Amino acid sequence: MSASSALRARTHVAIAGLLLASFSACSSSSTTSSNAQGGTSNGGSSGVNNGGNAGALEHGGSAGTVSGGSAGTPGGGSSGTANGGNASGGAASGGSAGMPSGGSANATKKGISGWLYANDTALASELQNYDVVVQSKPDGAERHVRYLFPYGGGLGLTGSAYTSDALSYDPAAAAFYAAKLPNAAMLPIIDSGDGDALATFSSADQEKLAADVAAAIVSDPNARGAHIDIEPFHDEHAPFYAKLKALLHASQKQLTLFTGRTSGPIYSTADIVVLSGYDLGITPVSAAKYQTTLANMVDTALASAASGGSTLLVGIPVSASFEEYATESGACSTATGVSQEQWVGAALQAVCPHQADASYLGIALWQVGSGALEIHSEPGCLRHPDAISDAVWGLLENFDPAHCP
Q1: How many domains does the chain contain in total?
Q2: Residue 5, domain member (yes or no)
Q3: Which residue in 250, 245, 229 sits closest to 310, CA to CA?
Q4: Which of 98, 267, 270, 333 could link 382 by a cystine bridge, Cβ 3.0 to 4.6 Å?
Q5: 243 to 231, 240, 310: CA distances (angstroms)
Q6: pLDDT tens digits, residue range 335-386?
Q7: What are phi and psi of 153, to 5 degrees?
Q8: Is there a domain that residue 255 lies in?
Q9: Maximum Cα interatomic distance, the chain, rounded to a whole number of Å
Q10: Residue 225: predicted pLDDT
């Protein structure tokens, strides 16, 4: 697909049939295992992505956080009210990004999101095309591209003390996608696989590091906040997150945190919690078991968000997740036999009942990539698909939460 092409030519009757078939294939239920806490990426490698996605973390670890009370709940008539009109705190309305501009740092609105690790015009076009389609639907305002996670940089932490050169941040990705999708809030990713090291920092050193991260985000005119993914998570990270949240809120910017956890202090620390709805460590691997497991996780996470004063985005495996598409077999991997369409259909069915929930914002696409559409060999070992197929885009566009199966 070229970046200059118009809307993808699709037969929507066929896509609608695929959606129903996918839901039907996922309709059987099975009991869920206890929460896999997000499932670490292959071989417990501290969540580091094995797919080479430009420094991305394979969001399987528990890059959550603790501490810091809630700074106000979205919705409920507070300044910057979520999900609806232009409340008094300056929450955006209409097709705007739904992030604060002078009001509460917790002003959030419903919509979808996604992770981006390359500045690619073709990927921007895919997201623009999706927006054109869903904006014509009755619920389009709640399902358009509201938030994006372009890759901003990482934290290289060594030793057990703060150093001023730990943060590497580049505002180019946020600028690139903000120009092409001006109605989406840019929440640049800052990630790290050095969570063990951070846990050994003193509170004062963690706060110094938080100040560096906040300074980078606050000085970036295209960043509406930060998307933090530090793995593995430790309770000892609390001073870092508490300080970062306070500094971001002081500049009317938001803190979003990725996690595999469905409860805990992260749900009062973050403004938006992004739950890993993939790489869940389920066995046997099947779309039906995945759907049941994810549905139970979302139920628990939403209850945690409601009590903690945060909101929830749910990451789903549109591509790039490992466990849904391939399983370990010695040194290499084998295909699960479940298609992208089946995984996405199961995920949509799992979140479908929650569209009207005040704490639920929408889905997050892991990930929006531009690689091969099929599971491929690297070398001789099966890997996940690295792009979203037209059929999956069709499922997302035609998803109708008003008529859950």
Answers
A1: 1
A2: no
A3: 245
A4: 333
A5: 18, 5, 17
A6: 888 889 999 999 999 999 999 999 999 999 999 998 877 776 667 777 788 8
A7: 155, -165
A8: yes
A9: 59
A10: 98
Check if the beta carbon of residue 229 is closer than 8 Å to that of residue 59.
Answer: yes
**Is 317 in contact with 350 (CB distance < 8 Å)?**
no
Residue whose token pair is 């078991």: 289
The span from the CA of 63 to the CA of 191, in Å, is: 9
Residue 107's pLDDT band, with cuts at 50, 70 and 90, is: low
Residue 6 lies in a domain: no
CA pair distance 386, 120, nearest whole angstrom: 14
State yes or no: cis peptide before 150, omega within 30 of 0.
no
Instruction: Give me Rg for the CA atoms of the chain.
Output: 20
Pairing of strands 147-155, 360-366: unpaired
In-domain check, residue 298: yes
Among 396, 362, 369, CA closest to 385: 369
Residue 14 pLDDT level (bands cut at 50, 70, 90): very low
Closest to 133 (Cα-Cα) out of 142, 144, 125, 123: 144
